[in-house]
Design brief:
With 444 residues, this protein is an alpha/beta fold. The chain has two domains: 25-63 and 346-442, Aspartate Aminotransferase, domain 1 (Alpha-Beta Complex), CATH 3.90.1150.10; 71-344, Type I PLP-dependent aspartate aminotransferase-like (Major domain) (Aspartate Aminotransferase, domain 2, 3-Layer(aba) Sandwich). 37% of the residues lie in helices and 16% in strands. The chain is built from 16 helices and 15 strands. The strands form three sheets. A seven-stranded mixed sheet has the order 4-10-9-8-7-5-6, sandwiched between helices. It has a four-stranded mixed sheet with strand order 1-2-3-13. α4 packs parallel to α13 (329-344) and α14 (347-363) runs parallel beside α16 (426-442). The longest helix has 18 residues, at 118-135. The chain binds pyridoxal-5'-phosphate.
Length: 444
């Protein structure tokens, strides 16, 4: 093995101590897949092999790897101001960044609460929604509505509104008073749809049934991923999000978009709210905000939500919530440099202009062995494989074989999710499709 040096991180002699997240630890450690370096759209493994990044890391490295501008900003910030509290204290970073971000969001989504991850952003958005109703004197609105097959991170709030059984069933009764909309995935009606499916907007009407069951006066918020990523790329049917918005409006329920994946260009617009032309009340983001370099998340709140808290004595804390690292100086510097790159290189427009080439390329996989659906939007695609006897086994085998052959994909069960960095060139798309085609042809 040609082992590459990794600065400040010695090559491990024993893999046992690190309890890996969302990983089959024993299986992985028996045959590890370790990255040592990354530049542009490629990783290099510890044994010196180049791997094409078909997933922007974990849906986060939208501007590609090894961006010098971000590295320089982080270095300069650590040297000048490594940390300063943001509880009853401050530093310029989060104020400037919030102002810049607020200008990127449509409508009056113009206040920003900083977190350190998508999970924290989701839990923060849910807490703001609950507290908002309470400060307005509607404290009976405590129910939260999520959706089946939704992924909202791993905090107790996120797994409660999320709709993935293994993420929930080990962890007790979670938070009470949660209900779920049905998911919109349906191969009978929508298989091999390009872009948004025609069928399925009516599934939003299930919210009316939930409202009838519990009464609107008990419901605080509905949270959805505008496009569900982690559960296998579920594209919203045409009109679905619009209908959810209308029903929420009718009953005074807040609508939260979890844009942890869709934010920062993934769909070819800065945010899904802009892409679909539907304005939620709160938006949760993370990942692409710093190009995956430094942990950071944020929640965007509409003017009216923020203002509802700004009452009472001026020396009173308005929202009893926050993290030691909310608005961390180094994360703010990384985010500013990331936004510079997105702007200077027009990466969101680039994603939009590449999306039709991408769509055609991914749909060329139709007809290959095991492929039962292909779906796409912006620079995302899901390729669903027929399950073998053991659900998920074929997907896992595909992931491992792709990696061995120099392509990083992500799989959820038997669904392959593709979400390349937005700096991909058409020849990278061709290469990805070629590699995936050869893997799919050989899969048992
Ligand atoms: C839609 C969505 N929400 C929340 C999260 C959780 O983010 P994190 O892993 O940063 O906590 C993710 C992560 O993939 C996500 O896709």
């Amino acid at each position: 093995m040609t082992l590459l040096p990794t600065p400040h991180s010695p090559l491990p002699t024993d893999l046992d101590a690190f309890w890996m997240p969302f990983t089959a630890n024993r299986q992985f450690k028996a045959k590890p897949r370790l990255m040592a370096a990354a530049k542009g759209v490629h990783y290099t493994t510890v044994d010196g092999r180049e791997v094409l990044d078909g997933t922007a890391g974990l849906w986060c490295v939208n501007a590609g790897h090894g961006r010098e501008k971000i590295a320089a900003a982080v270095h300069a910030q650590v040297s000048q101001l490594d940390f300063a509290p943001t509880f009853q204290m401050g530093h310029p970073g989060p104020f400037s960044l919030a102002d810049r971000l607020a200008k990127m969001l449509p409508g009056d989504l113009n206040h920003v609460f900083f977190t350190n991850s998508g999970s924290e952003s989701v839990d923060t958005a849910l807490k703001i929604a609950l507290a908002y109703h309470r400060v307005r004197g509607e404290g009976s609105r405590t129910r939260l509505i999520g959706r089946e097959r939704g992924y909202h991170g791993v905090g107790f709030g996120g797994i409660s509104v999320g709709g993935i059984a293994p993420n929930r069933k080990f962890f007790g009764s979670m938070i009470p008073g949660v209900d779920h909309l049905p998911h919109t995935h349906n191969l009978e009606h929508n298989a091999f749809t390009r872009g948004q499916p025609e069928w399925g907007a009516h599934l939003a009407d299930e919210l009316e049934r939930i409202v009838t069951l519990h009464d609107a006066s008990t419901i605080a918020a509905v949270i959805v991923e505008p496009m569900a990523g982690s559960t296998g790329v579920l594209i919203p049917p045409k009109g679905y999000l619009e209908r959810l918005r209308a029903i929420c409006d009718k009953h005074g329920i807040l609508l939260i978009f979890d844009e942890v994946i869709t934010g920062f260009g993934r769909l070819g617009s800065s945010f899904a709210t802009e892409h679909f032309g539907v304005l939620p009340d709160l938006v949760a983001v993370a990942k692409g905000i710093t190009n995956g370099t430094i942990p950071m998340g944020a929640v965007f709140a509409r003017q009216g939500i923020h203002d509802a808290f700004m009452h009472g004595p001026e020396n009173g804390i308005e929202l009893f919530h926050g993290y030691t690292y909310s608005g961390h100086p180094v994360a703010c510097a990384a985010a500013e440099a990331t936004l510079d790159i997105y702007e200077e290189e027009g990466l969101f427009d680039r994603a939009r202009s590449l999306s039709s080439y991408w769509e055609k390329a991914v749909h060329s996989l139709q007809g290959l062995p095991h492929v039962i659906d292909i779906r796409n939007l912006g620079l995302v695609a899901g390729v669903e494989l027929a399950a073998s006897e053991q659900p998920g086994a074929r997907g896992y085998e595909c992931l491992v074989t792709c990696f061995e052959q120099g392509l990083l994909v992500r799989t959820t069960g038997d669904i392959i999710a593709l979400s390349p960095p937005l700096i991909f060139e058409t020849h990278h798309i061709d290469q990805l499709i070629e590699q995936l085609t050869s893997v799919l042809k050989a899969l048992p």
